Amino acid sequence: GQQLNQSPQSMFIQEGEDVSMNCTSSSIFNTWLWYKQDPGEGPVLLIALYKAGELTSNGRLTAQFGITRKDSFLNISASIPSDVGIYFCAGGHTGNQFYFGTGTSLTVIP
Amino acid sequence: DTAVSQTPKYLVTQMGNDKSIKCEQNLGHDTMYWYKQDSKKFLKIMFSYNNKELIINETVPNRFSPKSPDKAHLNLHINSLELGDSAVYFCASSPSFLTSFHEQFFGPGTRLTVL
């Protein structure tokens, strides 16, 4: 099965800094999803994107559906310690399965 | 209220044994999934059911057999467990595979350790 490439693989940042990560695919998708996984828990949906070029925010998080439909981006502003976790992107099509990214591990240093 | 629940949370067993993991969702969703997350945290889909019908069956050993008694439940039975089956298994559900809304809601996971 396909695996989407996420970068960076891991990030170590100071509290208060902004974070950017991205996800790329070799295929075009009509939906992009962003998830966060805390240690010992299941992934939790953060943002869903359904249209090329769409920009959607959820609090300090902003995600974009790339205009090529082969990529997506997630930004976190003014990071706080509870942002620590693994962030996954997922892409897919209506009526077809979703593929998950390789994950970006975020560490926030107080 | 727990949206997607799995039991057990932890499962430790010997090689060669048969075990089952249960999943239930109370969201009224039509579609349910099983994922495997390995030690590198890669999430890989195994199976998906839509209204009790199997719609996705990735390349998974036939020792793994999903069963969906109704659309709120999707269980995973594993025969003849092997060391390589050790992983975290996640159940998930989404409103419907056939619509544009694919948000998947995940359970807390079952950590399987095969000794």
Protein architecture, described:
The complex is a heterodimer of chains A (110) and B (115). With 110 residues, chain A is an all-beta fold. Helix content of chain A is 0%, strand content 54%. Chain A is built from no helices and 11 strands. In chain A, the strands form 2 sheets. In chain A, strands 2, 4, 5, 9, 10 and 11 form a 6-stranded mixed beta sheet that branches. In chain A, strands 1-3-8-7-6 form a 5-stranded antiparallel beta sheet, with no helix packed on it. In chain A, a hairpin with a 5-residue loop joins strand 9 and strand 10. The model of chain A has no long low-confidence stretch (mean pLDDT 93). Chain B has 115 residues and is an all-beta fold. Chain B is built from no helices and 11 strands. The model of chain B has no long low-confidence stretch (mean pLDDT 91). Classes of the chains: A mainly beta (110), B mainly beta (115). Chain A binds chain B through residues 1, 3, 30-31, 33, 35, 37, 40-45, 48, 50, 86, 88, 90, 92, 94-95, 97-100, 102-103, 105, and chain B through 4, 35, 41-45, 48, 56, 58-59, 90, 92, 97-109.
What's the layout of helices and strands?
The complex is a heterodimer of chains A (110) and B (115).
Chain A: E1 5-7, E2 10-14, E3 19-24, E4 31-37, E5 44-49, E6 55-58, E7 61-65, E8 71-76, E9 85-92, E10 98-100, E11 104-109
Parallel strand pairs in A: 2-11
Antiparallel strand pairs in A: 1-3, 3-8, 4-5, 4-9, 6-7, 7-8, 9-10, 9-11
Chain B: E1 4-7, E2 10-13, E3 19-25, E4 31-37, E5 43-50, E6 53-57, E7 64-70, E8 73-78, E9 87-94, E10 105-106, E11 110-114
Parallel strand pairs in B: 2-11
Antiparallel strand pairs in B: 1-3, 3-8, 4-5, 4-9, 5-6, 7-8, 9-10, 9-11
